[in-house]
Specification:
alpha+beta, 5-stranded antiparallel β-sheet, 20 strands, elongated
Length: 438
Amino acid sequence: MELWTEYEGRTIDGAFPLTKLIRPEGRSAFFSTSDGVGGPTVIRLIESHFDDEEILVRWRGIQVLNHPNLVKLIQFGRVTLDETSLVYAVMEPVDANMGEIVAERRLTTEETKQIGTSLLMALEALHSNGFVHEHIEPANVLAVGEAIKLRSDCIRETPEGQEGRDLKSRDVHDYSVVLLQALTQSKTLEEAKRYMPLAAPFNEIVPKGMSGEWGLEEIHTALRPDTVQVGTRPVVTKATDAGIVAQTVVELPSYPTERVRVPVEAESRGIEGRRLAIGVGAMLLLAVVALFVHGRASKAGGAVQANAVVPAIATEGSEAAPAPALEAPAERGSVAAPASVAAPEASVPATPTTATNGAGQWRVVAFTYNREAQAQEKAASVAAKHPDLRPEVFTPNGRAPYLVTVGGTMSRDEAFALLKKRHAEGLPGDSYAQNYRR
């Protein structure tokens, strides 16, 4: 990879065109793209420095949390472009960010309460599930439809010991600064003196959160007296005529290091119910959204705003480590089988999911499907036209995705030799080689 601009016009996983470079940041860059159904959004590419699995597991954690106040990642995975291994994340479309608004005017106390409540819920979920954010600032507070969300592609695991406690405290400090900026357009208490004292409960939350005297638990008690926290794990509650309805934190499972990409399932539309469950008043929330929409309307229409999801943040792992060779690209989204190809009478048996020991477990993957029947149909179609390719259906984990591979199992050198040869002969351009040895 020479320049990020060289990737403009390319397509990731056959679904996400890199329309225009928005911002490069060291080994990371943001491009405008579509969300897979025609809507404009943003995709982030990160050059792999032997930490691609770690990044993908973090994003998988965001997917599993599925929190209404964290920006959803529509799809993420690993690809190879021009012999450079990359990971990518496609983010859900956003309408505006808080940074645009506070640059123009201060927010009201009620508007700030809505933003503060949304960010508090997001931070409690992150901290309770082993993550820290480290990039809490107005530009990362986003309006998505009727919800206020925190950017989620830049999280990391919480380190152990004192370092982890310090990073959590830093998140609380930055959260408090965001509230101060919302109310005063100032980043320090000294700059905001003319607006003092702040309205309750921010007269306590802001200074005590910035000083480290208060953590999330104390802020929760001050900002959301209608809810409680049980032990060290937050429980969101809402009083009803029938009593108390609680929503508990999601437990994160562990993931094998071989996992590279899991497409995000279609989001359920129960946002209103979840919003009620976290005690956010609909009328006040609509007021905040109107504010964001107003801010966005002042921008030029039709283009994806770079600062809507791409603030200036510290780059991850900026050390100049060499990118790995074409190691393990991600499985791609499913490709619809051509309507003209009839289903074969005898299906091609799927290769067992557990590979035998030995070095020669590399495969060349030509097609990926979410349905086994489609994969079998494609394998039969390829076999009829190119029997020398020896296509077969392979599943790494016993379920979707179902991969159509060619050439059987082989060594790494054999796999890349076949890949290079068959690319020249018409193998799909996004075919890749991967080692599936366990």
